[in-house]
Amino acid sequence: MIFETRGIVFRNQKYKESSVILDVYTASHGILTFIVNGVRKSKARISPSSVQLMSLIELSGYYKNERTLHRIKDIKPAYLYQSLPFNVIKASVGTFMIELARKCIKEETANPELFEFLVSSFKALDVLDKGLSVFHLNFMIDLAHYIGILPHLEEVPEGELFFDLINGELVELAPYHGNYLGPNESQLFLKGLQGINIGDLDKEERRSFIRLMLKYYEMNIPNLGKIHSHEILETVLS
Questions:
Q1: Torsion angle, CA of 76/80/84/85, rounded to 10 degrees?
Q2: Per-residue DSSP letters for 149-216?
């Protein structure tokens, strides 16, 4: 079956001499894996820029339910980045965002709200003038909402409370399972979940918050694995 859809390139892997294998988050089918033949040749019909990581694309391809690897018929840009690929800080932020999204989203099913959120996030990053130091933190919070793991706590209470990372709730005693945040970490974590503006957190608090959020993701996304790009991002933002 030939189909057309929009997509976001989640991963680009070289294959043989001139081809690539792409993981694409599509509007129509969720995560799909494609092989694109000849794209690395000097006179390739498909532009290599269309298959780069984070590219927002329109594609047509051949889809069969029983296959895990599909073939591309054509790809073209759905949006041309103006600054993201050429700005070291923005590229580092975007790389972190795409790694987190790729490890969280594994379903081969359409999720229109999640797809549009991701597209709008990368477009917003591309045109962003200020706020790069907190953009990825708010992205983590919003992504948790769209994939259904954001804890629903309306306010940040005072006192010596522990945040249970597994059950997503505040408790008075440290949970027996050991996966929790202490009182100080809990205050920072819950403060950040309300949304982070420029100047709300200093550099060390931002670094602590991203680690707390990643810990929460690890507890709530099966087989998430380790996220590595945030270490490079922290260096770039320092």
A1: 50
A2: -----SS---SS-EEETTTTEEESS--TTS-EE-HHHHHHHHHHHT---TTSS-HHHHHHHHHHHHHH
Q: For residues 151 and 192, is the Cβ–Cβ distance under 8 A?
A: no
d(CA 154, CA 187): 13
What are the φ/ψ torsions at residue 78 (nearest 5 degrees)?
-95, -20
- From residue 237, alpha-carbon distances to 52, 135, 137, 154, 193 in Å are 23, 12, 13, 30, 21
Give the predicted TM-score (pTM) of the model: 0.92
Of residues 46, 20, 43, the one with CA closest to residue 33: 20
Rounded Cα distance between 51 and 220, Å, is 31
Angle, vertex CA 49, rays to CA 43 and CA 55, nearest 5: 150
Mapped onto helix, strand or coil, the DSSP state of residue 23 is strand
Q: What is the pLDDT of residues 75-110, one digit of tens each?
A: 999 999 999 999 999 999 999 999 999 999 988 899
d(CA 86, CA 89): 9
Q: Exposed/middle/buried for 44, CB within 10 Å: 0-12, 13-18, 19+? A: middle
The pLDDT tens digits for 183-219 are: 999 989 988 998 899 889 999 999 999 999 999 999 9
DSSP class of residue 85 equals G
**Numbers of helices and strands, H then E, in the chain:** 6, 8
Please state, in angstroms and rounded to a whole number, the distance separating the CA atoms of residues 238 and 235: 5
